[in-house]
Amino acid sequence: MLKNKFLYIALFGILGIYAYKFFIFNQYIIKEIVIENQSNRSDINMIKNKLQFTLEEPLHLLNLRDIKESLESIDWIKRAQVNFDRPKILRVKFDEYDPIYIFNQEYYVDVTGIIFKIPGNPLDILKLSSKETTHDFMYELYQNIKLIVDSSSQDIISIDKNRDMLNIKLENMVIKVRFSNYEKKLEELINVYPQLQEIYKNNYMKIDMRYPTGFAVE
C-alpha cells in the first residue's frame, strides 16, 4: 500500500513537471529570427525559407536539433548552431565549407582536409588531378611546385599528374614536365624566365620540358 502511495506521488510529480514545462514553454513564441553571420557561398534565401516555419510557433513545438540538421542539408553549410533567446528570438549561426582546391574535377577539399561534393558548376579555384595518387599527395606536390615558381609571379591554375607526366597550367603558360625530375627542370625554367618574358611578352607560352636537356617553347 505504501509502495503504491509513493508511486502515485512520483507519477503526479512527473505530470506536474511536464504541465509546468508545457505552460512555461507555451508562453515562448518565436517572433524574430536572427541570422548572426553572412553567407558567402550558401543560398541565404534557402536558409530563410528553412527557418520561416518557426515564426509564430511556440517553443515546445520546435525541435532545435531538427532545425540544425535541416540547415546543414543546405549546400556549402558545414555546421549550424540554433539557439532560442527568450522570450521570442531564434538565433542561427553557421559555418560554411571553405574549399582551397578541386580534386579530379569532382571533389572539393577545404583548409582542414575535409573532402566534400557540391552539385553545380565548379568554382574557379585551384584544380588538382591524378588517377593514381591521393589528394593529399597532389596538394603537397602543388606546394612544392609553388615554392619553385613563386618568383615568376604566376599563380598555378591546375596540376595534372598521369604516371610520370605532369601538366602544370599557370596564368600565362602551360608546362609539360616529367614528375621524376620536375624540380630540376622547373628551376632551369625559372632561371631563364625573365628572358622568356622579354621574348614572348604577354603571349601565352606552351613549354615542353620532357627533353633530357633544354626545353621547347611555342
Compute the gyration radius: what is it? 29 Å
CATH H-level superfamily of the largest domain? Cell division protein FtsQ/DivIB
Outline type: elongated
Helix content: 25-40%
Give the mean pLDDT: 86
Biggest sheet statistics: 9 strands, mixed
The main sheet orders its strands as 6-5-4-7-8-9-10-11-12
Please tell me the total number of domains.
Answer: 2
Secondary-structure-based class equals alpha/beta
- The tally of beta strands, per DSSP, is 12
CATH fold topology of the largest domain: Rossmann fold
In N-to-C order, the SSE pattern is HEHHEEEEEEHEEEHEE
Model description:
The chain is an alpha/beta fold. It has 2 domains: 2-96, membrane protein fhac (Ubiquitin-like (UB roll), Roll); 100-217, Rossmann fold (3-Layer(aba) Sandwich), CATH 3.40.50.11690. The protein is 35% helix and 28% strand. It contains 5 helices and 12 strands. It has helices spanning 2-26, 44-52, 64-72, 135-149, 182-200; strands spanning 32-35, 77-85, 89-96, 99-103, 107-110, 115-116, 126-130, 156-162, 165-170, 173-178, 205-208, 216-217. The strands form 2 sheets. Strands 6-5-4-7-8-9-10-11-12 form a 9-stranded mixed beta sheet, with helices on one face. The chain has a 3-stranded mixed beta sheet with strand order 1-3-2, covered by helices on one side. A hairpin with a 4-residue loop joins strand 5 and strand 6 (115-116). The mean pLDDT is 86.
